[in-house]
Amino acid sequence: MTQAAVRVGILTGKEIAFIFTGNYSLSGVEITTGHFFSVRYDHGEILFQGKKYKELLFKALNREAAFLLQNVTIGVTFHWERKVDQLFSGDLKIILSGETVTAVNIVPVEDYLVSVISSEMSSTASPEFLKAHAVISRGWLLAQINKNKPEKTEEISFSSLVRNDNEYIRWYDREDHELFDVCADDHCQRYQGISHILSPKAEQAVHDTCGQVLTYDHQICDTRFSKCCGGMTEEFQSCWEPVKHPYLIALPDKNPDSGESVSDLSDEDHARIWIESSPEAFCNTSDETVLKQVLKDYDRETTSFYRWKVEYDREELAGLISRRSGIDFGTIIDLIPVERGKSGRLVKLKIVGTRKTLIVGKELEIRRILSESHLYSSAFIIEKESITDHLPQKFILRGAGWGHGVGLCQIGAAVMGEKGYRYDEILRHYFPGTTIEKRY
């Protein structure tokens, strides 16, 4: 197996502006560097310098070639969402996407990974943590590329949307991207090109693990990760399609030699006790040295995530749910847990209103509906206060963790790195039963 190239969707819009800072060509003709170009959607085609195309491919003529894209949105729909200009190496492809155009960066996998590790983590992170993350970021990416292969697409098909009068169940995954392999944002993996972020330590971690992935039965593992599991990782099928991966299971984020067992948090009473407590875990830390390794400046706008609280008054919650779901539930009477995963994360939640009652899921849809951006996680319990005429006047959500909780917990893994665990030990903790294999 040789190193592959990855197609990364960076930016979509009616018009995209960019500038080449190195040598590029279009259809064999070298492109002028140093001034801005733009492309825009025009009646089913791409308009570029007065001519129309179905697609454009600007080829980098050497490794030093780069291009700058203006107004790239990062943190899409999250509380830190903003627009920035970003610099990328590799090829630039412009494609049609409905009635818009999309900029796609085509870059070798290992170059992509250096940017991902630099974008996801700080250069202060321990080498073992960075190496562990390089392995799982590589494996996750190659697993997604493998899913894209034509011979794979017809094997098993799952609808990511179940909708009827009683339920609205949706999950979001890489399959949302049909025109490229992965996107550049948190929906997939953070990839911010080479815009003053590349870390020599990240580059070394990628180099030291070049071609390494986790496998299970010699198949490349779908190695997921999130910011903070809240003390317990979650099963894959609780968040995405109904497929069990034996290496993506619920397990306590602590030294397995401790001998302590944790109750099945899919039980409502057990989940409440867990979320209301602050159990020992690798990711239960307030160590600024560790947190700075995982949380970039915009991430640090979030100050509480191992355990957190959100409060809504009745009218505020009704308006929020209506805006975010597009459904008029009327006055919200109750929020009722229907199904939890083994980490306590809600898979299904019943929203009871005076005009509509509906069960919603999975975890990201619940988080999306109950926040202007996203709740930190769906591992929360509901408290109701100030009951008047059988109607709560206030809803309090008390929660645990940040993200879906499946696979590697970034803050937990950073703590493990600081404690002296090797990268293979970190990987065995979060992905039990897997093997590190070098694929190229």
Record keyword descriptors for this entry.
about 450 residues; alpha+beta; seven-stranded mixed β-sheet; 9 helices; 26 strands
Layout of helices and strands, plus pairs?
Layout: E1 5-13, E2 15-20, E3 24-26, E4 29-31, E5 36-42, E6 45-48, E7 51-53, E8 56-60, E9 66-74, E10 82-89, E11 91-97, E12 100-108, H1 109-120, H2 127-147, E13 161-163, E14 167-170, E15 182-183, H3 200-208, E16 212-216, E17 219-220, E18 225-226, H4 268-276, H5 288-294, E19 307-313, H6 314-325, E20 332-340, E21 346-353, E22 357-361, H7 363-369, E23 380-388, E24 391-400, E25 408-409, H8 410-418, H9 423-430, E26 435-438
Parallel strand pairs: 1-15, 14-22, 18-25
Antiparallel strand pairs: 1-12, 2-5, 2-9, 3-4, 3-8, 5-6, 6-7, 8-11, 9-10, 11-12, 13-14, 16-17, 16-26, 19-24, 20-21, 21-22, 23-24
Helix pairs in contact: 1-2, 1-3, 2-3, 2-8, 2-9, 5-8
Structural features, described:
This protein is of the alpha+beta class. Helix content is 21%, strand content 33%. The chain has helices spanning 109-120, 127-147, 200-208, 268-276, 288-294, 314-325, 363-369, 410-418, 423-430, and strands at residues 5-13, 15-20, 24-26, 29-31, 36-42, 45-48, 51-53, 56-60, 66-74, 82-89, 91-97, 100-108, 161-163, 167-170, 182-183, 212-216, 219-220, 225-226, 307-313, 332-340, 346-353, 357-361, 380-388, 391-400, 408-409, 435-438. The strands form six sheets. Strands 4-3-8-11-12-1-15 form a seven-stranded mixed β-sheet. Strands 7-6-5-2-9-10 form a six-stranded antiparallel β-sheet, with no helix packed on it. A five-stranded mixed β-sheet has the order 13-14-22-21-20. Helix 1 packs across helix 2 (127-147), helix 2 packs across helix 3 (200-208) and helix 5 crosses helix 8 (410-418). The longest helix has 21 residues, at 127-147. The protein is globular. The model has no long low-confidence stretch (mean pLDDT 91).
